[in-house]
Amino acid sequence: MAKDEPATTGKPRPPADPERRIAFRFGLSAESRAAALLIAKGYRILFRRFKTPVGEIDIVARRRGVLVFVEVKARGRFDDAAEAIGKRQQGRIIAAAEFWLAGHPEDAAGDIRFDVVLVVPGRLPVHLPGAFDASM
Description:
37% of the residues lie in helices and 32% in strands. By secondary structure, the protein is an alpha+beta fold. The chain has a single domain, classed as Trna Endonuclease, Chain: A, domain 1, CATH 3.40.1350.10. Strands 1-2-3-4-5 form a 5-stranded mixed β-sheet. The radius of gyration is 16 Å and the shape is globular. 22% of the residues are buried.
């Protein structure tokens, strides 16, 4: 690292625009709430915010031998959160999961599932196991 370069901590940086900064923090809070719910349900969180060249996986977790890729959606209403996960986004999540599996071949032979956690302010998050599958 050059002398004038700032050290990076690996933590995500909020955007400069104030509205985007609020949305970014809302998303981080939603992911933390989703992770807490999953932990309470017996999941072990393996990774959060797994970034790949093809997309990001909000949470990678495991429970009873099943590897779970979790998408977290936070909106003002549960219906809006659920509708925000379209086929195109599912495709990106599946591609990112394939990227994970390429780097973790020991996981490729086991059971895999795609879950969604919907987060709405002032309500408990809703976990949807097996919300979609890779067959699209």
